[in-house]
Amino acid sequence: MIHSGEDTWAPSGIAFANQGPWQDKLLVATLRGQQLLIFSLNEDGTIVENIESLFENEYGRLRDVIQGKDGSIYIATSNRDGQGDPDITDDKIIRLIEK
């Protein structure tokens, strides 16, 4: 179990990556946290060993995250739902690919 502490993440989408550079990582899109959290787990998946944050406040509210068949990660933003602060290009689907 993990707790956000003083911050509110408001997790909205979750995916377990099974290939590529994010293999065996738990990916969590957050609305209020406005970031993608990447959880590294121990070998049996019961303990969080590290949490990495990507895109904090870069794309706004992140609604969902999935992994495609090719291993790419897709993130959907949610800034035009009356809760976010949309810019002219919102909303987006962001694709992360292996380098």
UniProtKB/TrEMBL annotation:
| InterPro entries linked to this entry | 6-blade_b-propeller_TolB-like (IPR011042), Glc/Sorbosone_DH (IPR012938)
Identify the Gene3D superfamilies for this entry: TolB, C-terminal domain
Q: Which residues form the Glucose/Sorbosone dehydrogenase domain?
A: 4-83
Q: Which Pfam families match?
A: GSDH
- Name assigned to this protein: Glucose/Sorbosone dehydrogenase domain-containing protein
Organism from which the protein derives:
bioreactor metagenome
